[in-house]
Amino acid sequence: MIPRAILTSIVERALEEDLGGGDPTTEATVDEGATAIGRAVAKAEIIVCGGEVFRAVFAAVDPTLELSVETAEGDRAVRGDILWTVRGSARAILMGERTALNFVQRLSGIATLARRYVDALPPGSRTRVTDTRKTTPGLRVLERYAVRTGGASNHRDTLSSAVLIKDNHIVAAGGIGEALHRARRLAPHTSKIEIEVESLEALDEALDAGADIVMLDNFAPGAIEEAVKRAAGRALVEVSGNVTLDRLPELSRSGVNVVSVGALTHSAPALDLSLRLEAAGA
Amino acid sequence: MIPRAILTSIVERALEEDLGGGDPTTEATVDEGATAIGRAVAKAEIIVCGGEVFRAVFAAVDPTLELSVETAEGDRAVRGDILWTVRGSARAILMGERTALNFVQRLSGIATLARRYVDALPPGSRTRVTDTRKTTPGLRVLERYAVRTGGASNHRDTLSSAVLIKDNHIVAAGGIGEALHRARRLAPHTSKIEIEVESLEALDEALDAGADIVMLDNFAPGAIEEAVKRAAGRALVEVSGNVTLDRLPELSRSGVNVVSVGALTHSAPALDLSLRLEAAGA
Amino acid sequence: MIPRAILTSIVERALEEDLGGGDPTTEATVDEGATAIGRAVAKAEIIVCGGEVFRAVFAAVDPTLELSVETAEGDRAVRGDILWTVRGSARAILMGERTALNFVQRLSGIATLARRYVDALPPGSRTRVTDTRKTTPGLRVLERYAVRTGGASNHRDTLSSAVLIKDNHIVAAGGIGEALHRARRLAPHTSKIEIEVESLEALDEALDAGADIVMLDNFAPGAIEEAVKRAAGRALVEVSGNVTLDRLPELSRSGVNVVSVGALTHSAPALDLSLRLEAAGA
Amino acid sequence: MIPRAILTSIVERALEEDLGGGDPTTEATVDEGATAIGRAVAKAEIIVCGGEVFRAVFAAVDPTLELSVETAEGDRAVRGDILWTVRGSARAILMGERTALNFVQRLSGIATLARRYVDALPPGSRTRVTDTRKTTPGLRVLERYAVRTGGASNHRDTLSSAVLIKDNHIVAAGGIGEALHRARRLAPHTSKIEIEVESLEALDEALDAGADIVMLDNFAPGAIEEAVKRAAGRALVEVSGNVTLDRLPELSRSGVNVVSVGALTHSAPALDLSLRLEAAGA
Amino acid sequence: MIPRAILTSIVERALEEDLGGGDPTTEATVDEGATAIGRAVAKAEIIVCGGEVFRAVFAAVDPTLELSVETAEGDRAVRGDILWTVRGSARAILMGERTALNFVQRLSGIATLARRYVDALPPGSRTRVTDTRKTTPGLRVLERYAVRTGGASNHRDTLSSAVLIKDNHIVAAGGIGEALHRARRLAPHTSKIEIEVESLEALDEALDAGADIVMLDNFAPGAIEEAVKRAAGRALVEVSGNVTLDRLPELSRSGVNVVSVGALTHSAPALDLSLRLEAAGA
Amino acid sequence: MIPRAILTSIVERALEEDLGGGDPTTEATVDEGATAIGRAVAKAEIIVCGGEVFRAVFAAVDPTLELSVETAEGDRAVRGDILWTVRGSARAILMGERTALNFVQRLSGIATLARRYVDALPPGSRTRVTDTRKTTPGLRVLERYAVRTGGASNHRDTLSSAVLIKDNHIVAAGGIGEALHRARRLAPHTSKIEIEVESLEALDEALDAGADIVMLDNFAPGAIEEAVKRAAGRALVEVSGNVTLDRLPELSRSGVNVVSVGALTHSAPALDLSLRLEAAGA
Which CATH number fits domain B153-260: 1.20.1260.10, 3.40.50.1000, 3.20.20.70, 2.60.40.1120? Predict the structure, then answer.
């Protein structure tokens, strides 16, 4: 559930951008009193995501429009399925159409890609697929929601949600132990401390210094298995960076706890959805 | 050139989202006075786009950071090329890193895809590849800029920039002629009037009623050639919808004036760029 | 129709400005439960404009207020006519009064002036009177709406809606032909290209280079007629700059397509409207 | 002096409105490195107002532009006088031109009208001409500044700056005495209490109840003189509503302290200013 | 009454801050359809303040929540009293809880402290206790409302609501008389002019120059009495700065008109309120 | 380090509130060209906090003002010590004075109170004192910074930064084990999971279900000691709610890891700072 005010603020910015000067095409061709029904239709197999955003866009154009959800969030829809319906002023529906679709085609795209990753895990796998902070500027809260809707998990929300120590931080602090020590002292006790390691030696150092999560950077498959063994019961193991679908089964079998995939949000192709309009009279 | 205030407002929203609560990792591990040099590096062959946004992000974190452009906008860079450099407070560079990269990986992704489309046209082609309004909510002005940087062209900016009459508008107005007549009367004289047509008969009706641009919806290749002939000297011909790279040469040879491609903005995969940091002392 | 979110954002800014610190006068003198009816009354002959803005202001002060439209947008009202009615909390009505009137007195002023210009055209004239971008900062979408409500037309909305090449651009580009060529290449195919010309020679050059619209700068009446002849069938002819009402018939008879009038928005005097309150009990 | 952040926020909103989608005309016709000098020139006799806003607009487009003031705020300029100069990127100057002029043509219009009212007072007059809250939504702080620049005075800033009891408040409170009593109790001790009166009897009641200022509503000239006598030493006398220039001398001679004129801000015609550009090289 | 739009804008900013990334705790543990009743309960004796803000927070999270006021604004509540009730989605109630309480614990804290000051005045006292501009950045309109709710009064709202000349202004202007003269000339006639004085001589000078209010800075008790005598019938006397509760009776007996107390807003401790939730089914 | 854009946005909102209508007192009494030096002076013993905010306020009023830090953040200052200095336009300094002080008096108040709590811990104590989410709406990032500056620690930043399961969540989920299980599944792997427990039995259940942190609600001193023993090596122990300074030593000796104190932010009294101005010439 995304709180209304959060949603509205994102949606209004988008409408301002497309509709800030009005819509002369619609104003010219559609009579003021005309009403219509618009049905958002899937044009391929998708995981449905974005109903509340769809609703919020149309409500921001005209609060008297009526919305209904025809396919639940996270369900799989196939070509031709109706996802959501909007009824009321034909002008208002046409004015909000593009902005509404721009949101939901992206969110459904992310949810659908997330589902593909999750489905690529072996049955019973306990490995978690997560997003990263590589989200679209301004849309993070929506994109993280889409990732969850697709069945994957979220990584930390913002820079202040958890500590993630990367190579530059380690160098600046003067070593793995010192970086972890400093972070533990400054960060909230509610934050886990994650650290990126580049070798098994660095891993050991991180585990000894009490890291909660270790992120393996560019480890060979064998080294990953060894890392998982060493970390067992001491820290979670995360693999990140350019993980393709076909590597997931192996990573899962290695016992990796988390695979984080930037592509979930930065490169999910938008899905093609269309809004079919039917006149409902004037 | 994107005016500074426009850029700043987009960039600040993005920083608020990621950095609004501060960055405890960096605050803990990097000393306050430490300085560094960060170099944005291409990790694949790309068309470079986004230098001004990169600059604006870091300036919004800390106005004393110094930026320099190492590869010009629109140039092709290969793996390992340095695109931009930022110098100054190591803390500030690390805090702005992710937000800056989130922008430029998307913009370079769009520019690179746009270039691929343009390069797929036959030599000497006069066909124009354009974007659509299927842009990321909140980032349209940047994404349209990236399309131009890649060498492709822009379609109308907002709903109020030009008239584009689609099937629903035609039905609502009571026909092609009436829709065009009404639009001509209401729209600014500076707006071109474009109309979507689904058959050669509809095309003739649109041409007779004075459409400036006709958008062919789902025409067979032969029908496209015929449409181009009929429209010659009377209206521009645009083809839209799911145009893949390999169809471009044929469309160009048919004489189509414009091919609009939603994928340029809604499905360009982000390109992988990284920021390499080097300590510069304290 | 102005989308709700666009309207609300403008209206809230205005309320913040006047009412951000509350209204001690009303809070002191009017009991919390008191209700009233407020009637907006014309104090002169006017073209009515702004009902939706009037509604939006009061809704932003107190969403339980009830609004009704007594005179339709664009209709002519005479002194004493009731335009709109607002019912509900007397405090809320008094708090929103000035802001609501500040909007509608300006919009009705513009609509009324626009109507005077349109009425000054000879019967059957096909000349179009338009506004310019000389609008009040922050209120453009409303003022353009008022111009249309008065029966006149809009010029381009923003700098990105169409191309308008002025003398400085011509000089910078190195001539009329080069400026038009460059603009055609960069601008969206949906944008018309307008260019300002200062002589018949420049006009010919612009027509030869394919300008869609020519704006005649300071042409003598005879030269205007000649220009219209030369442009016939090739480009629209626009006259701009200090056009007074009494010149309109002659310009229309010359065959000028468009007369753009900055005064419609930058110098329309506000019309005097008042809100008559009647207590409705407590 | 208008604090920078206040100014910037108003100016950025205006730029967003006109320039949010960029300026393809300028981008096409003017080379990136070209520089120019722009001179704002008066096209009639005016009281100059708005230099800081002019500066803020261009700074928001491009902070490297250099501005200089050629005619001081509040000075009289004649046709051809240069008011302000801007130097730097030709593109940036052209992009900001219209927005900058839209502000200063309005502010100079207000200042010039204010000066005409002040100049219409007899020599040595102690009557003060003020504005009202009938300002343009979103621009109040600027318009009040323009009124002062023209030599006139400001009325209360917002609803919370002072108490002004009008007829509806009196009726709601149950009479003049009760309204004044209530207002005195609730309002800050720093607020003056003004009340509108419709007769000499009402005036007496208001004076007895301790009003600080009385606003005479629709009094005949003789009654005004009498009112001034009765109020002398007890309250300031303000006359409001449709006061034309030619009535000012008589009102001043009657001893009226304040004449408030809504037209100063709601109906001042914009003054024609232009920006003359001269190329400065590339 | 705080206008809705003013309230909403403050409340949305606060929600963005706490809830901008969603609430995984609630999303995980509470089913989507679950409903609940939340009751805000006093945990000590308080003056109740903030019902409208409480309502606005929950409405911004979910507009379908139902709110009811159980104890009126300004009433005294004791430990265990229910102040307000919210019913509806259990998730929405839990998501808004902290933000709602953060507002009302502060506002009730201020109202309660204000009441203590007012109650410390002798019976029948005509001395007024007021706040100052030492309010929390961003919350002034709410905190001033809380001061009134507690029974105390407001000082000037903003820098532009009234004139208050302090020592630095006096020095800059070249003396008390000159400062008052200049302020009278520039400030609106609706503004009272207050001036800070440091001695009885300065007081006389201020009274002679027509100050409306004199603020006594650091006067000994005897000097205060003398100052009140000299100012009687000429100006209001305000005492400011570190006034503790036990000094109020004496100041009141001295005839001081106004005692302004910064602590009302800058140091009122938050009161402990809690929200008791009861499941209402799913 | 608070990123500039984050700071500026908070500061501008505050200036808008106080200075949005200008400052007639200063404009009247201080000449435009006058310059001054302002020194922020401690009026009691304090822990200094807020230099960057102080700087940002004045920069937003007038970017040409020069600021210097005289006492470092987190240092102890005594009555009379100069904390920061601002030089430049006397008008600008006076206009920003109150807003700047309103920020720093609050932040220094929080830092000073935080230091008192930390100093109350026994020497060598490993117990951590933290804030809570009971912060001032709109100022959280600043108040958390002040807590750290005082030497205490932060709790979770926002609702999405970590999981904190309270009694209502436990009831909704159907028990401690189920609530923890659900939270672990949904929350990011980077989030710690904290849970509130009301008895030793509940504590055991929480520990068995893998809670990372247990918050003891209203435990007797003996029970706290027992809880610490049971949790040792399994989870952190936090005590929250109405912890006064004198209980800290005992809690520390019990081995409690974290004591969270809402009063640090919601009830820290503002400290009295003043700005001493000295004219620097004109």
Answer: 3.20.20.70
